[in-house]
Design goal:
This protein has 1 helix and 15 strands. By secondary structure, the protein is an alpha/beta fold.
Length: 148
């Protein structure tokens, strides 16, 4: 991209990041995300962000058109991302139970989904494990049980 086009793209993306920050309604957020792509933080539960948690990947699909959706929907739900976690564009993480955690560094692909349910456990279906954690996937799904 030409220098002027890069500046315009960065300016437009920054405006989108601020818009989604204003639309977020979760009052129990600790930590600050590194929001390269817009992040919507929703719900009555808690969202805990470790150091250098990064949302969005400029070189991946859907960077300029999508957003990451993180929702701790009930008062007892908790979503926690450990230090150095990276989520790719359009990540969707929702907890309706006791908690959903990502304690190790992970980088998930476009359209990645993570849900906590009451009785279902699913492992990531197309994620490749290497080094510190997950790295690349496309349409992977992770579900964890909220019972126990």
């Amino acid at each position: 991209m030409a220098r002027g086009a890069d500046r315009l793209a960065a300016l437009l993306q920054r405006g989108r990041v601020y818009k989604y920050r204003a639309l977020s309604n979760c009052k129990h957020v600790s930590g600050s995300p590194v929001a390269l792509q817009p992040v919507l933080l929703l719900g009555e539960g808690a969202i805990v962000l470790g150091r250098d948690v990064e949302f969005g990947w400029p070189a991946s699909a859907l960077f300029h058109t999508g957003y990451c959706h993180i929702e701790a929907s009930t008062p007892g739900s908790v979503i926690e991302f450990g230090d150095g976690v990276q989520l790719n564009n359009n990540a969707f993480v929702k907890s309706e139970g006791r908690g959903s955690g990502s304690e190790r560094a992970r980088c998930s692909g476009p359209m990645w989904r993570s849900l906590t349910a009451t009785s279902t456990t699913c492992a990531p279906t197309t994620a490749a494990t290497a080094g510190r954690g997950w790295h690349r996937s496309s349409s992977a799904r992770m579900c964890s049980s909220a019972t126990g």
